[in-house]
Design brief:
Layout: H1 11-36, H2 44-55, H3 59-84, H4 91-115, H5 121-146, H6 156-181, H7 197-224, H8 229-260
Helix pairs in contact: 1-5, 1-7, 1-8, 2-3, 3-4, 3-5, 4-5, 4-8, 6-7
Length: about 260
């Protein structure tokens, strides 16, 4: 799952990656909202909050929203730098390190609530920074890994693409039916395109995984409070261990090549 990038990846590999990380993205987003009242897996809401708070003269809150946007960008920047460097030798190890940092940020979210006994709005914003940075890292990681095919921290683009694919399928179905009933059912000069079934499977996987993750995250937040985020931290940490094991196998293969090559 963490061994190939872009076009070298198969459709099943992308679906497994999408399902795993979309579930985590949905979990973190809804769990964070229940606990601190802020969506953290995407930037759109914080841009709106920044504009609204600025217009109302709530400059401290507007500054906090701007900081959360910056935290998301910093998370994406950090992952991109990690993947560009040769320090990790193999990309699998870079993915492992990025996932480990994401897991640490999610665990730190829980730790803050235990060590700081206050519900001040600015503390809530500080907690949100940790989640925004983690989600920025995840979004950049899966974008680089999949060649911008997969997004796992928001659903706007996914749902839009599903609508496009559904329209393409409907037009193709009408075109096929036209030949049977001998009545023109498709308008326009363009030949109806066959829908990309693997893409529909991928988009559906992301949407369902995010939805189930969001539902599970909300339930866990109600039941466990801030400790619920440890569920996501453990899940991401498991991914880091898996990616690291893949990097270890590549290191062993390199060592054998040098020894017998």
């Amino acid at each position: 799952m963490f061994s190939r990038e872009g076009s070298a990846r198969s459709d099943p590999q992308n679906r497994r990656l999408a399902g795993y990380l979309a579930f985590i993205g949905g979990f973190v987003n809804s769990c964070g909202f229940v606990l601190i009242g802020t969506f953290t897996s995407h930037v759109t809401g914080n841009v709106g909050r920044f504009a609204d708070d600025t217009a109302l003269g709530n400059y401290a809150a507007a500054g906090a929203a701007l900081t959360m946007i910056f935290a998301f960008i910093c998370g994406a920047f950090l992952v991109s730098m990690m993947l560009e460097t040769t320090f990790f030798r193999h990309k699998s190890r870079a993915y492992a390190a990025a996932l480990a940092i994401e897991a640490w940020l999610l665990a730190a979210f829980t730790a803050v609530s235990f060590f700081v006994a206050t519900t001040h709005p600015r503390l809530r914003d500080a907690e949100a920074l940790l989640l925004c940075a983690a989600m920025g890292m995840q979004n950049a990681l899966v974008t680089r890994l999949s060649g911008a095919v997969v997004r796992t921290t928001h659903l706007t683009g996914v749902v839009t693409d599903l609508g496009i694919e559904m329209a393409r399928w409907f037009r193709h179905w009408r075109g096929s039916l036209s030949g049977v009933v001998r009545v023109r059912l498709v308008l326009g000069a363009n030949v109806p395109e066959r829908p990309a079934i693997p893409r529909i499977y991928l988009l559906t996987t992301i949407a369902l995984a995010f939805l189930f993750g969001a539902g599970f995250g909300a339930v866990m937040a109600v039941q466990l409070g801030h400790a619920a985020m440890l569920v996501a931290a453990v899940a991401v940490g498991a991914g880091a261990l898996y990616a690291n094991s893949r990097g270890q196998r590549l290191d062993n293969d390199d060592a054998l090549s040098r020894r017998f090559g």
